[in-house]
Amino acid sequence: MIKKLMSCVGKYKIYAILSPVFIIGEVLMEILIPLVMAQIIDVGIQGDGGLSYVIKMGALMIAMAVLSLTFGALSSRMAAVASVGFARNLRQKLFYKVQDFSFANVDRFSTASLITRLTTDVTNTQNAFQMIIRVTVRAPIMFLGALILSISINAELAAVFLVAIPLIVVALYFISTRAYPRFRAMLSKYDGLNSMVQENLIAIRAVKAFVREDYETEKFEASADGLRRAQVHAEKLLILSSPLMQFVMYGCIVAVLWLGGNMVIGGTFEIGQLSSFITYITQILMSLMMVAMIFVMLVMSRASAARIVEVLDEEIDIKDSELSVKDVADGSIEFRDVSFSYQKDSDTAALEHINLSIRSGETVGIIGGTGSAKTTLVQLIPRLYDVTAGELRVGGRNVKDYHLDTLRNQVAMVLQKNVLFSGSVRENLQWGNAQATDEEILEACKNAQAYDFVMALPGGLDFDLGQGGVNVSGGQKQRLCIARALLKKPKIIILDDSTSAVDTATDSKIRAAFREKLRDTTTIIIAQRVTSISDADKIVVLDDGKINAIGTHEQLLATNEIYREVYHSQQKGVEDDAGTK
């Protein structure tokens, strides 16, 4: 785990090395200053050194203090640059890994958990890294240096540490073994809170429409309170380290003052030596407090680091094959006894034994009830998921033979959930083709029946859609997403219930444009309305993850009960509406 994380230091390695180097200089000055102070007291004040000796040694002590301050400032600067650079590289590495995730990989972690890992967990790890390159060097050097000098001053008095140090080590070990699982549980609560907030903000319009603010507030309060309890449960154990260190430090100081004071009274110990010895005790115990602080941070960051490494170690489900074919011959599609399950080890299949052949340039409609796996079926074509069994071929080759970019560039999907991004209309449409000219964009808008409303927007193509396209209606979103897909000029285009928010007349115009402009493009239309697919070359009826029937509109009306039932129920609805009017 450490090796994987440290690889993210990258070009900031020099800063990570210089920080402890400057720390060494700072600590050396700090542990030498008490010796100079002792000389000032014992020789300059109580001895024969006089004022000139005091001034000379005082100047030396000031110079050492200035050097210590300079080294400390440089160390802090280097550590800050190194830790920020480390966090930047780690966050980038995580983000790049997530970009390669298949849908199945994302499903295993959840979006909210990935956000927490990219933010909170990286910040925790960054803070730990900064502390490691500073304090883990400073604390042991100060401890050893001060301990050696205190022993050289009075070995008998230094025996006080034989009691203090084992007590601290045992206590910290006890705390660490019990704190780690508590922090893992706390971070999972963070995931839950983030998930709840994300869901609420995305669905804020539905919340307000159904007047569910009170319910959502109660959910948030319950989640936040659960997180608070988890934090208290985790941190109440760690905070024991601070009073423990304080107790030991002050206990040692009291013992040294008592024993050392008696030695001074007995004439076996100098006042200056006692003063420097107390300073060294403080330094030793402060270094141990730093160790306790490191320990607290490492326990917290260990849980975060483990969660980060889980993402970095995640096996990508969908990869480029060794063949990585970079050309799709045509838009033909063939499902050969394809089955699929979202859980690889599950006996519950979303799709079972799908056999379907689609010629290049055909228009195919897919219809079925809710949960019949219509969307699942088409998501297999661009390898958003991989088939569990069987074989799926596009352009005469197994989809697993293609380079992923090649395959997905030739398959344009207009998803069931319309996704637009912050930015202008032009910027959103250029997701389909980054080099598309305004003329090409407007032509795609015309084919998607989006031209008129785009031109009516303030600024036209420069109109800012807002986050998630909040400044346009649902039907307008759908048409913009269709235009974006058309700009890819793909060999296969998939419309996943993508005209549900537009009226039937506009739907008819979009289909007419497809027939005229996309004669050589294979078009797959998932629809709830029979009218949206009635003129398709063939229609696939799905039922519970299986193909129930394949045929034209007329054939299915004559032979398939499911299709006929859907058609008649929709026709009855139209007639009832007409009668009402």
Report on this structure.
The chain has helices at residues 2-6, 13-45, 50-99, 103-109, 111-153, 155-158, 161-202, 204-209, 213-238, 241-266, 271-313, 374-379, 404-409, 425-429, 438-447, 451-456, 474-486, 504-517, 553-559, 561-580, and strands at 333-340, 351-358, 363-368, 389-394, 397-398, 411-414, 492-496, 522-526, 538-543, 546-551. The protein is α/β, with parallel strands linked by helices. A hairpin with a 2-residue loop joins strand 9 (538-543) and strand 10. Helix 5 (111-153) runs antiparallel to helix 7.
**Number of individual domains:** 2
Oligomer: single chain
Stretches with pLDDT under 50, minimum 5 residues: none
CATH class (first level) name of the largest domain: Mainly Alpha
Task: Give me the secondary-structure category.
Answer: alpha/beta
What is the end-to-end distance?
A: 69 Å
Q: Tell me about the largest β-sheet.
A: 6 strands, mixed
Strand order of the largest sheet: 6-7-8-3-9-10
Give the tally of β-strands.
10
Q: Please identify, by name, the CATH architecture of the largest domain.
A: Up-down Bundle
Fraction of residues in helix: 55-70%
CATH topology name of the largest domain, in short, is ABC transporter transmembrane region fold
Give average pLDDT, whole number. 84
Rg of Cα set = 35 Å
- Overall geometry comes to elongated
What pattern of helices and strands is seen along the backbone?
A: HHHHHHHHHHHEEEHEEHEHHHHEHEEEHH
Percentage of residues in DSSP E strands: 5-15%
